[in-house]
């Protein structure tokens, strides 16, 4: 059990009458009653869900599961394996060719890139939330509380999320550990489910979290009862009577003369210009405006306003009803982002299928990261209703049954496929590679159920010769033979992530062969490969002049001289991670930073 109860006596200021009453009680020998609040302080009991992590699915190092329980590291600062670390930081990932373009109409206040959900033992009315950050703090942008008890045996009903605190991405002055405890909003329900959302784009290195403390009281505190009404995106129905009451700019009277009403001359603007103006509104604003008058209702419901639709910022409120209301407007939809949506019964197969059947015909991009409502039937619907689909993201859909992925092979026009942290198995991925020969970007990071990556590499070399980016982060069984086949067949590769692939050995010459075979290479991650040596770095310097991102964290065989040669030969280099490289100390890093100020040279530390 990770919680304990603290009894605290809190003084409160009272009126003069209350003070006199209390004094008379003491003087008359009566026992004075002091206000006592029982505050529960508890650490997270369980990690329930998360969008990504740096660690492996089969270990505890750098994984989100480290956030459960008491601190492992705090108050120490530095890079420790016992902390929770997200997969990315900075803007490096957004600069890569494999990164999709951002969606239009994303609200300016939506900053979240990753999240983690934590369950606590006791439901309480929160009074404080404390996050122990041990390395490069400042990534947390939102803290939310949920009304559902994740440990209840009853199915969730009427699930509500409330924002306790939100802010913009920040960058702390130092990477040192800190206790982050923002002032939170009081809510009207008890909770034992918190969600932290982060944005690491301003940070110079991976943020590391050690523990989360939830403080609260069991009895409901006195709250302000009045709350401003919020128009939900689900409230999209438009009454003809209401719209008729508002009318147009002019209405004809009984004598045949035009009477001036409320639209002014707005409707005299060209249709295209009004459409352009409305294209700058967020989705909720567009839905509100549609309820103002018939003219704007017509413009706001025009399918051309909905060629791109990102519902990720509204994940907490999205339901089958929301999709149903939007369905008639999305007949020309080309790009759809449903990432993070649908958890705990908010979206169902029925609602999703109905929407896809009505709106999937022109769809070319579908983002479904962390969509835990998905099942095999949903993927079958996608394969049947989206014949033009070119991009599919199923990142961290880790509850999908392995059999479900076989339906992806029917999407033969796919160019980008993200399967990070899914349960896809070898049979399914080989089937996909057999039929989806137009693939340009493929992410198989942390796909631990693929038995033989050499076979996958051979199939990629034979069928996907136009591949531009490949992520094999933490694949456990790729050998030099598979890598040689891959780089010989896929010579268009610009990005290759081989981080934490322990079976690759520099002594076989595989990394030098890689460098000679991929002259277009821009990003190469060889993270935690202890065998990378000077010969490999020198071959990269000679053969890959366009290199921009290189991660060789953990090697003990690379010297400052080879790094200097690399920096001189690769003028476009932006990121070089030499953390835990024993031959490259901080003095060397400072010297290289002085010589090459445009390169971000990373060197983590422990303290």
TrEMBL record:
GO cellular component: SCF ubiquitin ligase complex
Domain of life, source organism: Eukaryota
Keyword Secreted: no
Span of domain F-box: 263-318
Ligase among keywords: no
InterPro entries (UniProt xref): F-box-like_dom_sf, F-box_dom, Leu-rich_rpt_Cys-con_subtyp, LRR_dom_sf
Gene3D superfamilies for this protein: Ribonuclease Inhibitor
UniProt keyword terms in alphabetical order: Leucine-rich repeat, Ubl conjugation pathway
One GO BP: SCF-dependent proteasomal ubiquitin-dependent protein catabolic process
Name of the protein in its database record: F-box/LRR-repeat protein 4 isoform X1
Organism listed in the record: Lates japonicus (Japanese lates)
Lineage: Eukaryota, Metazoa, Chordata, Craniata, Vertebrata
